[in-house]
């Protein structure tokens, strides 16, 4: 109970401080962040997309001098020995291989390219974010057939102050941001497996604090 009181007091104090700063200063409002939708619309259509921080291994058959391993830069591009600034983020390895074949066709005759990926960071649009009263709020790399239970295991469950049954899942569908209720307490505390749901790349889970 003492921990709960201290936790609540800290939250109230932080909110009061923010409101005080706003009242004392004329602050322009920033535009709302743009949420980029995932290309995955259902669990069966998932294909891994390359993202910044991934290691991209490019093998050009018969041309080892233009083959190699490259780290995707924060701007989503790589630079090879022949071509600078090849955009790779948001593409599947197969799509990238075909793109590189087209580019290398300017320098080589009928190039055959194979692309493999390591690191598996992926673009932000494909990551699942868990915020609020999770034990370890994280951005998680999506894996095919991942469920809410898998996500909760990854973030270490909820804090003792979490209101898991009032949690919300935010998902973009057909360009529209939608919210769905989650019953996380029922799932991980009561073992109600019917509360488990499929996750999709780009999902955001918001876990509020309970006030009781």
UniProtKB/TrEMBL annotation:
Domain (SLBB): residue spans on this chain: 128-207
Iron listed as a keyword: no
Any GO MF annotation of the entry: polysaccharide transmembrane transporter activity
PROSITE patterns reported for this sequence: PROKAR_LIPOPROTEIN
Bilayer topology annotation: Multi-pass membrane protein
Location, primary (coarse class): membrane
GO cellular component, as recorded: cell outer membrane; pore complex
Compartments, as annotated in UniProt: Cell outer membrane
Alphabetical keyword list: Cell outer membrane, Ion transport, Lipoprotein, Membrane, Palmitate, Polysaccharide transport, Porin, Signal, Sugar transport, Transmembrane, Transmembrane beta strand, Transport
Record-annotated Polysaccharide export protein N-terminal domain positions: 45-117
Entry-linked Gene3D superfamilies: Outer membrane lipoprotein wza domain like, wza like domain
Alphabetical list of InterPro entries matching this protein: PEP-CTERM_polysacc_export, Poly_export, Poly_export_N, SLBB_dom
Biological process terms in GO annotation: monoatomic ion transport
UniProt record similarity statement: Belongs to the BexD/CtrA/VexA family.
Name of the protein described by the UniProt record: Sugar ABC transporter substrate-binding protein
